[in-house]
Structure formats: C-alpha cells, structure tokens
UniProtKB/TrEMBL annotation:
Keyword Mitochondrion: no
GO MF term (any one): hydrolase activity
Family to which the UniProt record says this protein belongs: Belongs to the cyclic nucleotide phosphodiesterase class-III family.
UniProt-listed PANTHER family: CYCLIC NUCLEOTIDE PHOSPHODIESTERASE CBUA0032-RELATED (PTHR42988:SF2), PHOSPHOHYDROLASE (PTHR42988)
UniProtKB keywords: Hydrolase, Iron, Metal-binding
Protein name (Swiss-Prot/TrEMBL): Metallophosphoesterase
InterPro entries, sorted: Calcineurin-like_PHP, CNP_phosphodiesterase-III, Metallo-depent_PP-like, Pesterase_cyn
Amino acid sequence: MSLNFRFAVVSDLHIALPHTVWSHPSRFHMVEVSIPALELVFAHLEQQQLDFMLLPGDLTQDGEPDNHAWLQQRLAQLPFPVYVIPGNHDFETAIPGKEAIAASDFPQYYRKFGYENSQQLYYTCQVLPGLRLISLNSNYFNAQGQLIGRVDDQQMNWLQQVLAQTTEDVVLVMVHHNVIEHIPHQSRHQLGRRYMLENAPDLLQLLQEFNVQLIFTGHLHVQDVAQWQNIYEITTGSLVSYPHPYRILQFHQDDGGQNWLKIESHRVEAVPDVPELQEMSRQWIGDRSFPFMIKLLTQPPLNLPQVEAEKLAPHLRYFWADIAAGDALFEFPNFPITAQRYFAEFGAISPEGKPLLIDNNTTLKL
C-alpha cells in the first residue's frame, strides 16, 4: 500500500500576548501580529484535510509562561495532531527582567504535542502507519553558559538507537537549528554560524547512514530548501517576519515505489490592524538592515574598508528581506567585482550557476 499524507509547517511563531510584547527599536520580529497571523493560518489549515502539523521551534516571543499557556490551549482546539520542538526563544532567556520557563518545564506544556515523556526535550513517534517523526532539541548550553545549537551526545546516542530500530518506510526529522547551510559559508561566517548546529556534520552522517532524507528546521527566518547529497532540509520562514510564510506539503508514493514531496508556500498578506502587512513588514526589515549589512561588508571574506562599506550598504537595504522571501536572484552591477560575485552566491542558483527556484513551490523527487 503506497504512503500518502498531507501536512503543514509553521515556524518561529514568537507568540506574544499583548501584555507581554517587548518593544525595542532594533527588534526584527513583528510579534504584535503573532496571534492574529496565526489565527488566519489556522483558519486556512483547518480547511486543508491535513494529517498533522509541525512547529519547528521558537513558539513564543521569549519563553513567557503566559505565551506558552495560551499556545498549548490553542493548539488543543485544532482538528489535526500537532508536533512541536523548542527553539532558542522558548525558555531561559538572557533578557534582564524577562520571566521565562525553565527548559525542564517545556515538555510539561506540550504533552499533547509530542512530549508524552515529559522528562526529556526530544521524542519520536509513529505519526501514521509507515511514517515516523523524530523531534530533536538543539538548544545546548556550552561551558561558558551560552546557548548554542548542538544535538548533545546523549541525544545522538538515542537517535542512533531509534534509527536502528525504526521499521517505518519514511522518517521525518524536526530540529530548530539548521543542519545544512542555507546561505553561503553559513557554518563558518560570524553572522551565520549561530543559526547552525555546531555538530551538523555528525548528524548528517548519521541520517545518511539510515537513509533519512527530510529535515525540517526554522530559526533563520528564511524560506529555503537546501540539499546535501540525498538529504533535503526545508527551512520555513518566521510567521512574524517578512514574508510571513507557512507551508503545506503533500507526500506521495507512486505505483513504482518512488517517493515525491510537493511543497506549496503561502503568506499572511494582512491582519486586521495591519492591512498592508507585506509592505510594512518588508520596510520593517529594511529600516533595521544597515548595521548588519555593514558587518557583512566589513567582515571576512569581503573585508571592505568601513568607508566603502557605508557607501554600499544602502544598496543592500532589502537584501535580507529578499533572501527571507526565497527564490531571490541578486545582481549589484555597481559593486566591486568581488562583492558582485559574493552577493550573487546568496541567490537561488544551482551549483552550475543556473536559477534554481525551489524555495517556495516545488516537487522534490526523493
């Protein structure tokens, strides 16, 4: 019997009830729209005959108990199963004066959404006959007490055991931090590597060994589909950042036993208090982009002088917004040749240098 199922991915919700909204002039997340945007998404998804939904972390603004409580109550009202994992914003924030749940509290809130074993931050379950989900916790506190992306040794050992015992035909892995690079040299760049798993190569090697082909992530707030050998990682942009996306996916196994994954992406175009959400949100990122573009220009590999970087940065005002939207192609003909080539690499291009527009809508042959 062929395996067919339909599911949704909504990532980085950053849910913030009005009384919890934290205002800061450089905040990138439009958390004010988190709840109305999510309600519109749920209204759409409830009409889609879904088998389940994945939420790959950053469920709340900054781990506030009230926001977790609201979300778990809202998820319980949906007509399909939901599976969650924690992101780096979901507990133990470092922001002074902010109240957040402890890491050990997280499974208690989400027992109905994957965490039947409330003693650990990762789990596995058979979602459907022939389909297994493995949900990993990538929040790791290093020796300096910093929260980084890493799947710890205990989880890696557990994962190997789970994969060795798995009998299902298809395995999906969900984890918050990126495992495959979504922007050039992400694992080595100062701005990009904090969004990556520190031990991504080890995880990829293990997944390849057991022929796991699909990873679902968030964290980077971009729409992107990346590939490493026969493994695809589908990262979904944030519901509170431009372009406010979410995905509906259809897995299909044909009569010849070939697996296919059809990806459709949707956007929240407006919410009641923000009728021009897309335009306003793009502007929001543009208004906050200058310091980051300066860093991108002055740090390796470009290493441009500050004066030259300040001249070029305004041309990159919407660079990150375009990356976040997915399927972007970049040309900056007035930039120095090295900078032109560097920024072109961020575009949706194949290894052969041709356009490869698969970030939002495509069908993958697995």
